[in-house]
From TrEMBL:
Biological classification of the source: Bacteria, Bacillati, Actinomycetota, Actinomycetes, Pseudonocardiales
Protein name stated in the entry: Secreted trypsin-like serine protease
PROSITE patterns, alphabetized: TRYPSIN_DOM, TRYPSIN_HIS, TRYPSIN_SER
Molecular function per GO: serine-type endopeptidase activity
Source organism (scientific name): Actinokineospora spheciospongiae
Gene3D superfamilies attached to this UniProt entry: Trypsin-like serine proteases
Length: 246
């Protein structure tokens, strides 16, 4: 059931066919979303996404990097098409996974990567105190990633974006029962399905009001009716994240 949870390690992300992506989206230009980064293996396999929150810090999902050594991860910035030349690549020197992260419940699904060199792209601010309204039901959000474009389909070389409204906690609880934890998760999706994050999008940004409010975390399948995407509710972890950002 936990589609986005498949990438517990880099090797798992490569092998499991159900990690998250953007379904029903459209092409995005990295110039419009410069904080969006790809997490890759040293040989260039893209397995998750992330958001640049400081020149040398990336916020992503814990399930993307738990149990993974920094040497197994590189961060690629500044590319719309991951097969194109250019962009910037930074090595990862430290992986911090929230100490309350657990699997399979996927609570506290947040991690912060420290880079060995600064990236030039402007970072995005992470939601914190005073940003509670960004989580109100119906708030328009944008999710971004290079993941697959249909459930079980092929990944996209080109950055995709999709607009999905925040789902109420009550509706998300109806969709997922006790697996949904309102304090640490937020759902976003179209009731009829057809638009969602999915395989390969894990850890990528969910943005509202110019702030990073979520990271792609999990869901049942991709873009299914009545099954919105589930994202880490980053405002809950803002103090921990800011402490890592320095």
């Amino acid at each position: 059931m936990l589609a986005a949870a498949a990438a517990a390690t880099v090797s798992t992300a490569q092998a499991d066919p159900i990690t998250p992506y953007v379904v029903g989206g459209e092409a995005a230009d990295i110039a419009d979303f410069p904080y969006t980064v790809a997490l890759t293996t040293p040989d260039g396999f893209q397995f998750c996404g992330g958001s640049l929150a400081a020149a040398d810090k990336v916020v992503t999902a814990a399930h993307c990097v738990e149990g993974t050594s920094p040497s197994e991860i590189e961060v690629v910035s500044g590319l719309t098409d991951l097969t194109a030349a250019g962009g910037e690549t930074a090595e990862v020197t430290d992986v911090w996974v929230h100490p309350d992260y657990s699997d399979p419940a996927i609570s506290a699904d947040v991690a912060v990567l420290t880079l060995g060199s600064d990236l030039s792209a402007p970072p995005i601010a992470v939601a914190g105190p005073g940003d509670e309204d960004l989580y109100a039901a119906g708030t328009d959000t944008t999710v971004l990633g290079w993941g697959t474009t249909s459930e079980g389909g092929s990944a996209s070389d080109t950055l995709l974006k999709a607009s999905v409204p925040v789902t109420s906690a009550a509706d998300c609880a109806t969709a997922y029962g006790s697996d949904f934890i309102a304090d640490s998760m937020v759902c976003a999706g179209v009731p009829g399905g057809g638009v969602d994050s999915c395989q390969g999008d894990s850890g990528g940004p969910l943005v509202a009001g110019g702030k990073l409010i979520g990271a792609v975390s999990w869901g049942e399948g991709c873009a299914r009716p009545g099954k919105p995407g589930v994202y880490t509710k980053l405002i809950t972890f803002s103090a921990d994240i800011q402490a890592r950002l320095g």
